[in-house]
């Protein structure tokens, strides 16, 4: 039997690379290769060497090829979806000048505040770019680099986001897409292009940046001979522009601008993200109004402390991550990395309500509750900013799609179900970011609309649907009351 035409969707996220091998005709996941990343840094620093992402991509592709048993010649296209916002600076030969600053590096918080002020305040930024600078936004990181490491900032021959860096390694072409570009802070969602006024403010030469391809589906080039040798794939196969990981998850779900407000998404990874979609350009200061990969928009809110923070608490307590109980009186805000939503970049974790009879299982449960309430509050704020009343019965009853590594965990699912009171949908495709990237690759290789393609791939699937349980408002109120009272000086706010 001839081999199916196969595409590879790559998810280069904070903790690892996943390479999904997908049958381009049916959407069947044939194999997933994985390889870990290394994140370093103390205090607010979070860095990774971009060369390790490139090596992890090679390792993940090799592992996927082996698992699938397919001949490499079956592969017809590849696309990369990457963790958003990271700042990669390269020399003239495309080599990293220094480790990349990651999205969850909070050292650039003072630069974010200064930039917000200098450009006329939060509304001016949201109107132009869709987002108000916080430490995560790449523009804040570039300002930090210029102030803190001026030698490498002035030596930069190219400035990239993580997914553009990898795409360029594949195709030898400097290209990005509007989705990931919209998280940089120097791309105007109003104008659909890099913003000269913002580039001026940042002292960033547009010549250092990649071209913005029309959408993430565009074929921006072909796999070079060098990349083909490094990955063991055929030279000349299609390389798509790719996109940011959250935009790619939206594609993987087969949801474009019309579908997502009815079915908001909660991603449980290192970051907790909530996103919906909109055909209207978001300009609220309360969220990130990113561009989506299909020409629509992706209103999104993101927390810094989700699965990794809860795993750290489990490790400190010496219990398995699934061995948790509801927190009882204990409230634990696991803001181990500072926090982005709410904007508390210098916050640390906070524990209250400890008693003699508090168990380790309750403490771990309290960490799940603290992380879950934080991201579910961000969901309410996002729905409000999109013109919906999150408390209205019709809106509160909308199902929430749970994705990301944490969605594999029983405790995460139970905690989100109990604290949201919403019906949950657990998509049957585990690796939605990689699946979205595979749809972008398939469209680049064979034409068609990636969102429609992914929707067709997923049509035969059987998503798990969980009916709502009564909302645990007592815990919600206990956690939010601690958060509201502590958000001032105790958590580093004003
Ligand atoms: N079976 C599981 N149960 C609970 N959590 C899980 C499980 N598998 C993975 N995870 C969580 O998923 C996280 C990784 O998710 P992922 O979405 O890949 O993260 P990222 O995109 O930030 O790299 C880990 O921090 C881990 O806590
Ligand atoms: O900063 C954001 C979104 O704005 C994060 O969602 C990053 O895109 C990293 O995602 P994960 O690696 O945690 O999935």
What is this structure's SSE topology?
Elements: E1 6-12, E2 16-23, E3 29-36, E4 47-48, H1 50-68, E5 75-82, E6 88-90, E7 100-101, H2 109-118, H3 122-129, H4 138-148, H5 150-155, E8 158-160, H6 162-171, E9 175-176, H7 178-181, E10 187-188, E11 193-194, H8 196-202, E12 211-212, E13 219-222, H9 225-231, E14 238-240, E15 243-244, H10 245-252, E16 265-268, E17 272-275, E18 288-291, E19 297-303, H11 307-317, E20 331-333, E21 350-352, H12 360-385, H13 393-396, E22 400-403, H14 410-420, E23 424-426, H15 432-446, H16 450-459, E24 464-466, H17 473-486
Parallel strand pairs: 1-5, 5-14, 5-15, 9-12, 16-22, 22-23
Antiparallel strand pairs: 1-2, 2-3, 4-7, 6-8, 10-11, 13-14, 16-17, 17-19, 18-19, 20-21, 23-24
The structure holds adenosine-5'-diphosphate and 5-O-phosphono-D-xylulose.
Overview of this protein structure:
- The strands form seven sheets. Strands 1, 2, 3, 5, 13, 14 and 15 form a seven-stranded mixed β-sheet that branches. Strands 18-19-17-16-22-23-24 form a seven-stranded mixed β-sheet, with helices on both faces.
- β10 (187-188) and β11 (193-194) form a beta hairpin.
- The chain contains 17 helices and 24 strands.
- The chain is an alpha/beta fold and 494 residues long.
- It has two domains: 6-246, Nucleotidyltransferase, domain 5 (2-Layer Sandwich), CATH 3.30.420.40; 256-426 and 463-494, ATPase, nucleotide binding domain (Nucleotidyltransferase, domain 5).
- It is globular.
- The chain is 37% helix and 19% strand.
- The structure holds adenosine-5'-diphosphate (ADP) and 5-O-phosphono-D-xylulose (5SP).
């Amino acid at each position: 039997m001839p081999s199916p035409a196969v595409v590879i969707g790559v998810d280069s996220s904070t903790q690892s690379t996943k390479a999904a091998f997908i049958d381009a005709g049916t959407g069947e996941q044939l194999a997933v290769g994985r390889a870990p990343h290394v994140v370093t840094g103390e205090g607010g620093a979070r860095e990774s060497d971009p060369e390790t992402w490139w090596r992890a991509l090679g390792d993940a592709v090799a592992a996927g090829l082996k698992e699938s048993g397919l001949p490499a010649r079956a592969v017809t296209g590849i696309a990369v979806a990457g963790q958003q916002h990271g700042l990669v600076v390269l020399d003239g030969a495309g080599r990293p000048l220094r480790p990349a600053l990651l999205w969850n590096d909070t050292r650039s918080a003072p630069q974010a505040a200064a930039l917000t002020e200098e450009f006329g305040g939060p509304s001016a930024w949201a109107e132009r770019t869709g987002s108000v600078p916080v430490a995560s936004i790449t523009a804040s990181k570039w300002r930090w680099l210029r102030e803190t490491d001026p030698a490498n900032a002035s030596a930069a021959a190219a400035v990239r986001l993580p997914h553009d860096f990898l795409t360029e390694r594949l195709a030898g072409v400097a290209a990005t897409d509007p989705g990931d570009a919209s998280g940089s802070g120097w791309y105007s969602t109003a104008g659909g292009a890099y913003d000269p006024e913002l580039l001026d403010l940042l002292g960033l030469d547009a010549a250092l940046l990649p071209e913005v391809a029309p959408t993430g589906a565009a074929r921006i080039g072909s796999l070079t001979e060098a990349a083909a040798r490094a990955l063991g794939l055929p030279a000349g196969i299609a390389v798509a522009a790719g996109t940011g990981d959250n935009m790619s998850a939206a594609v993987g779900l087969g949801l474009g601008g019309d579908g997502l407000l009815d079915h908001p998404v909660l991603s449980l990874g290192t970051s907790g993200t909530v996103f919906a979609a909109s055909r209207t350009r978001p300009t609220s200061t309360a969220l990130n109004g990113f561009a989506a990969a299909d020409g629509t928009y992706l209103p999104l809110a993101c927390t810094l402390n989700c699965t990794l923070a809860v795993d750290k608490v489990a490790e400190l307590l010496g219990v398995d991550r699934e061995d948790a109980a509801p927190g009882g009186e204990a409230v634990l805000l696991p803001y181990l990395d500072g926090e982005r939503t709410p904007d508390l970049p210098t916050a640390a974790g906070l524990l209250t309500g400890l008693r003699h009879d508090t168990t380790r299982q309750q403490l771990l449960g309290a960490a799940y509750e603290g992380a879950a309430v934080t991201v579910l509050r961000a969901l309410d704020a996002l729905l409000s900013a999109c013109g919906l009343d999150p408390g209205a019965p019709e809106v509160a009853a909308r199902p929430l799609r749970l994705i990301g590594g944490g969605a594999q965990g029983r405790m995460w699912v139970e905690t989100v179900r109990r604290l949201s009171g919403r019906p949950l949908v657990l998509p049957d495709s585990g690796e939605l970011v990689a699946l979205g990237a595979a749809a972008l690759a398939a469209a680049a290789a064979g034409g068609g609309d990636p969102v429609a393609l992914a929707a067709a791939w997923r049509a035969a699937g059987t998503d798990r649907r969980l009916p709502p349980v009564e909302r645990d408002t007592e815990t919600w109120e206990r956690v939010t009351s601690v958060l509201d009272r502590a958000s001032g000086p105790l958590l580093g706010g004003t």
